[in-house]
Amino acid sequence: MITKVELVRLYETLLSIPGMNDPVRLDLKIPRKNVLLLSQVIRRGLQANGDSTEGTLLGLIAPTALQDVERLAGELIEKAGLSEMQQKLEALNQGE
Predict the structure, then answer these.
(1) How close are the terminal C-alpha atoms of the chain, in Å?
(2) CA of residue 88 relative to chain centroid, distance
(3) Residue 21 placed within a domain
(4) Which residues lie closer than 8 Å to 32 by C-beta, 6 or more apart?
(5) How many domains are contained in the chain?
(6) How many CB atoms neighbour CB 60 within 10 A?
(7) Measuring CA to CA, which residue among 44, 50, 53, 55 is closest to residue 3?
């Protein structure tokens, strides 16, 4: 079993590989329903409590990187023209 210290070292090593900070252009052609689903999966994963992420890669990621991923989820929704629907779905979820 790999220890947390070893896992952190491995993750930091992977992130230090040349070119890991270079932007990548992605041309995705997916249905809006999948954009909505993907953004929800990203947000749900980021909202997981500390217990469920401990010992996983998500638990080792720097807070700034997590904010970047959360921003990506918002950009996906915005580019798909689903901002208003997203807001209404969140309002419905809060009313439960």
Answers:
(1) 41
(2) 21
(3) no
(4) 80, 81, 82
(5) 1
(6) 16
(7) 55
Q: Specify the pLDDT at position 56.
A: 67
Domain that holds residue 37: 4-12+30-94
Q: Is the pLDDT of residue 55 over 80?
A: no
CA–CA dist 59, 50 (Å, integer)? 7
Domain presence at residue 71 = yes
Mean pLDDT, the chain, whole residue set: 85
Q: Which of 19, 74, 69 is nearest to 58 (CA)?
A: 69
Please state, in angstroms and rounded to a whole number, the distance separating the CA atoms of residues 5 and 3: 5
- The answer to whether residues 52 and 5 touch, using CB atoms and an 8 Å cutoff, is no
Q: Kindly report the pTM of this predicted structure.
A: 0.73
